[in-house]
Amino acid sequence: MNLRNMNARAIRRRLSVATATLIFVAAVCATILSLQVSRILDQRAEALAAGKVDTANLAMSLTQHANLTIRAVDAALAGLVERLHSRDHEQPDGVARISAWLRSEIDLLPQATVMHVTNREGWTFIDSEKDRPRVNVADREFFRYHLERDRHTLFVGTPIFGRVVKRWYIPLSRRYNNPDGSFAGTATALLDIEFFQKFYDQLDIGQHGAVALVSDAGDARLILRRPFVEGNIGRDMTDTHIYKASREAPVGNIEVKAVVDGVVRLNSFRRSQEYPLLIAVAKSTDDILAPWRRRAIREVAETAVLLVVLAGAGFLVWTMTRRLAQTKRHLQTALEAMPHGLCMFDAEQRVVFSNRRFRDIYGYPEGLIRPGTPLKAMLVNLAARVYKQDKLTEEESAQLLTMATSTKVFHFEDRLILVDRKPAPDGGWVATHEDITEQKRTERILADNAAEMAEAVLSLPAPLCRSPARGSARRAAG
């Protein structure tokens, strides 16, 4: 019964080792997986942060580009308005001189294709092209703006489609007045929209990237957008997320789903400090995260391979642990079933293993002899119980367990113990302890019986000791 209980406890211990192996491998795999997921998520956040920085820097660069482009044209318009206020156009050949000056300015400004002056009725009377027919622009947005507002600032209007030259232009205009302060007309320059479009098309903002140039002089109107869709020109931007965000802060970032094409983009916007312009640069989050996604897929695959290897190694270790535990269990069962006592010590004189028979022979308590118990503790216990009560001295007690000879018989509590000691490769030793008391007693009894029998035979009368062959011969002769 004790043997079965001991085996049951051993089985539970072995199972706990195997379970601990599985738990350890699972914990390692879970740790690696969680660290990898955390790393991938951090890389995603870093990719988005880098995307924000890129779009913000690009928005700042495009704002500077727009400012420089418009500033050069505005300088020419400011000079033209000054000439008009000086009434140069009323001088003899004044119109021709101003037209020639405008042509020279156009040659220096590749972004501007047309410059002209209108009167208060909206008719052009000074043009950078002397042979261009006169047109009326009284219905144009920029003309109505200056007619209704006495402001001496540049107006950036919504793109218009040319009536003479059939193409899209961005109108830049200034108001000029009569000497009495009344409205006299407009000085206007038309920027070729392709100038901006070609520049924006050169930007590396991904397949789904976008650039928007918005006029905020009156209503928020879209001037230009990449990718270019003619139907978007002049679209009201007041209710868009970007414009609303720009009203709260002149510079910022926002991730929105575009109304135009439904693509989710990371937008960076910036308002110009010089002109009523809003520039927004957007990169698709898919484009921004594409390198991260490829890297994440590769790292996930590598992690999966690593986890499979670890899981396989863990399963192998678990299987081997179970097999070793089973083998050890069988070995321990066999050792416990030995009729002799067995005890093994390591080089540091600590118990490695002992069976129950060894403990029973010397009467050791159940909890004293276990792996790691020092030999000294065993000797102290043995000496306290035996050598003071018997002829076995303390030195003999030590020799009983650590003798250098290979085999020796000891007297122990009226018993005879045969100890057979063998050295172990690691410096320790293993010894078997056999109680041969009954064996020696049996040998003595047999020896005594044999001696008695021999003595009895010798004491028998002589005739009974004759040879059977000699008796037969005598009978034949008689």
What does this structure look like?
The chain is α+β, with helices and mostly antiparallel strands and 478 residues long. The protein has 3 domains: 2-43 and 303-336, no CATH class; 44-302, PAS domain (Beta-Lactamase, 2-Layer Sandwich), CATH 3.30.450.20; 341-440 and 450-454, Beta-Lactamase. The protein has 11 helices and 16 strands. Strands 1, 2, 3, 4, 5 and 6 form a 6-stranded antiparallel sheet that branches. A 5-stranded antiparallel sheet has the order 8-7-11-10-9, sandwiched between helices. Strand 1 and strand 2 form a beta hairpin. Helix 1 packs antiparallel against helix 6 (285-336) and helix 8 crosses helix 9 (394-402). The radius of gyration is 55 Å and the shape is rod-shaped. Mean pLDDT is 83; it is low at 388-392 and 469-478.
Task: Indicate the structural class.
Answer: alpha+beta
- The overall average pLDDT, rounded, is 83
| CATH topology call of the largest domain | Beta-Lactamase
Give the total of domains: 3
Distance between the termini: 76 Å
Helicity, as a percent range: 40-55%
Low-confidence stretches: 388-392, 469-478
Do you know the CATH architecture of the largest domain?
Answer: 2-Layer Sandwich
> How can the largest sheet be summarized?
6 strands, antiparallel
CATH class of the largest domain: Alpha Beta
Count of β-strands: 16
| Strand and helix order | HHEEHEEEEHEEHEEEHEEHHHEEEHH
- Which radius of gyration do the C-alpha atoms yield? 55 Å
Specify the CATH homologous superfamily of the largest domain: PAS domain
